[in-house]
Amino acid sequence: MERTTIDLWVGIFVALGVAALLGLAMKVGNLTTASIGETYTVSANFENIGGLKPRAPVKSAGVVVGRVADITFDPATFEAVVSLSVDKRYSFPKDTFANIYTAGLLGEQYIGLEAGGDEAALKNGDKISQTQDAVILEKMISQFLFSKASEETKDSAPSKASGSSESTKIDDDALGANPLDAL
Amino acid sequence: MIKRSRLRPLRTLGHGFIKRIWRLGAGARLFWLTLISSGESFRRFHLTIREVYFTGVMSLIIIVVSAFFVGMVLALQGYNTLQRYGSSEAIGVLVALALVRELGPVVTALLFAGRAGTAITAEIGLMKATEQLSAMEMMAVSPISRVIAPRFWAGVIAMPVLNVLFCMVGILGGYLVAVPLIGVDAGAFWSQMQANVDWRLDILNGVIKSVVFGIACTIIALFEGYDAPPTAEGVSRATTRTVVTSSLVVLGLDFVLTSFMISL
After folding, report:
1. Nearest CA to B102 among B263, B264, B250?
2. CA-closest candidate to residue B34, choices B132, B131, B120
3. At CA B260, angle to CA B256 and CA B262, rounded to 5?
4. pLDDT tens digits along A82-137
């Protein structure tokens, strides 16, 4: 076969390959959305992070504004320290609230940032003090059953155990973290 | 004193073991020789381009057709299970991840071993049987740098290209089944896929896999051809061994690479 024909076919072959790789990157992968440029890092302590993983999205108002960079355990406070890389274009007030939400029924967990009203903005290395733990489904169910059981025994035994007050606290937590996300 | 004939099974075992080790060493030596004498395949790049044509372009049809059917079957089977759990929109993620992570590199490599690897082995085995390689050596042309190295680099170039084409065509096949045929929402199909397929962890790792498989398949095919006894029977056996060894090595390497990539 003629050399120019071979060159042409190989050229087409390689061009197709590059086009397919670009297609995979743009159409199939998340190269376009994952391109977070300059970031700054803030950390947040959680008592329980549930199934949160590094590289999970950080969203505010549903928009991805960053990623979870690193998760470590603090042996002094027995809390999880989650560091978040947030896009430099977005600045958040100092009293921003960090929650761990679940996408869908059994979906991946992500961090939701809710802006507060502080004038000063979060800087690199700052710490978010107000956090809301992940909702653990088993915990919620057991608390629900526990509170149901204590409601039933309420008439017979008006002096409830202290467990009931704890259950109301957890229920409030669950409401704060939007139980529809978890259920 | 034990009779000599009683020891025969042990001797056979030892002989087979030594032969395998010897072949492994000879293959590694050929690989090393190919690497250090591959300058000419880049200086005279048309040699390599010619081989890319024969190994890559000529494999396009089988790769594209099988990718299309693999994608369509994945979508059908995936939908069948996913719709029980009410998450048929996740079909795009299922098809894309299965193709990009595993099926793309592995099936491409298996098809490549069958389509291009056998051709390489038979060609080089026949070149040896008809003493073309010896003739080259007589003319002070190194058969390694003139015949082996261009084919090696052609295989290494062609495999990732074939792999990404396989993935893309497979996803298109899955799309055709999922969206027009079954009626999954097209927007959900693509957006769920984009949200869950990672550029580096999924796509790039798949390409890395296919590069490794390309190296393995091509060097096995080249070695079997170069090592084949110069007879009709020898070449036919070498061709069979190419397919068997390449397939086993690809599957083994796939496990090793995946375990590394998952832990990272």
Report:
1. B250
2. B120
3. 115
4. 998 888 888 888 888 888 888 766 667 888 888 888 888 888 888 888 888 887 77
Cα–Cα distances (Å) from B156 to B30, B55, B114, in that order, read 16, 10, 16
**Residue B50 to residue A3, Cβ atoms within 8 A:** yes
Mean pLDDT of A39-63: 85
- As for the ipTM of the complex, it is 0.77
Please list every residue in chain B whose beta carbon sits closer than 8 Å to the beta carbon of residue A16.
161, 165
Tell me the chain A residues in contact with residue B204 when contact means C-beta distances shorter than 8 Å: none
Give the C-alpha separation, A154 to A160, whole Å.
Answer: 7
DSSP tally for chain B: helices H, then strands E: 13, 0
Domain boundaries defined on chain A = 1-34, 39-132, 137-182
Cα distances (angstroms) measured from residue B186 to each of A27, A104, B36, B177: 13, 19, 50, 11
Q: Is the pLDDT of residue B150 over 90?
A: yes
**Domain ranges, ordered by start, for chain B:** 37-263
